[in-house]
């Protein structure tokens, strides 16, 4: 029994950590293959794309590479699109995508921090073999949850009730010449609803129980 509870708790925690990218508009960050993001630094030139491999150029020909760091003496791929891992940034500030690429017995890494921000700009840092890209973009913001079936039903019922009274009251007043409380269509039905609800609750929570009679009462 205790083992089953632990297993259920583990499965709950595992499923709650699954990130559904359909809740984010991350596709809007990706550029066409031949139009990558470019960062020019005094020492490096960085070209990268988001979840799309870079196109081969006269400067580099890496397969399935998402980020390249170039200098006067070297050109290195920092992420292979097939080696992707996804996690949430602290405080649900956005998404984190990690990539790695191994070439010539050396592994280089690229971290994409997709930060929820509508200003849409990006910065970069290089620490040893790790390239960190901070992309401020609305694609890192979680989309609003869609309406549930119950919410849609409640909105539909509210609209029907509003239409019922907005059409019924003018009809009763101008066409049937009713006045006072009688301008409400089917007014006696609506007035009886509280009593009907009370009667229903009494049946549910106070079922009829016959009174026990003593033997002395039996004639």
Provide the fold topology.
Blueprint: H1 2-16, E1 37-40, E2 45-48, E3 65-70, E4 75-80, E5 84-88, E6 94-103, E7 106-116, E8 121-127, E9 130-137, H2 149-175, H3 187-205
What is the residue-mean pLDDT, rounded to a whole number?
A: 86
User: Total number of helical segments?
Assistant: 3
What would CATH call the class of the largest domain? Mainly Beta
Helix content estimate: 25-40%
Biggest sheet, spatial arrangement of strands: 5-6-7-9-8
Strand content: 25-35%
- For this entry, what is the oligomeric state of its chains? single chain
Q: What do we call the CATH homologous superfamily of the largest domain? A: Mannose-6-phosphate receptor binding domain
Structural class: alpha+beta
Q: Tell me what the CATH architecture of the largest domain is.
A: Distorted Sandwich
Give start-end ranges of low-pLDDT stretches: 4-16
- Under CATH, the topology of the largest domain can be stated as Cation-dependent Mannose-6-phosphate Receptor, Chain A
Count every beta strand, where a strand is a DSSP E run of 2 or more residues. 9
Biggest sheet features: 5 strands, mixed
Q: How are helices and strands ordered from N to C?
A: HEEEEEEEEEHH
Describe this structure in words.
With 219 residues, this protein is of the alpha+beta class. It folds into two domains: 9-140, Cation-dependent Mannose-6-phosphate Receptor, Chain A (Distorted Sandwich), CATH 2.70.130; 149-208, no CATH class. Helix content is 28%, strand content 28%. It is built from three helices and nine strands; from the N terminus they run αβββββββββαα. It has helices at residues 2-16, 149-175, 187-205, and strands spanning 37-40, 45-48, 65-70, 75-80, 84-88, 94-103, 106-116, 121-127, 130-137. The strands form two sheets. The protein has a five-stranded mixed sheet, with no helix packed on it. A hairpin with a 4-residue loop joins β1 and β2. It is elongated and about 90 Å long. The two termini are 58 Å apart.
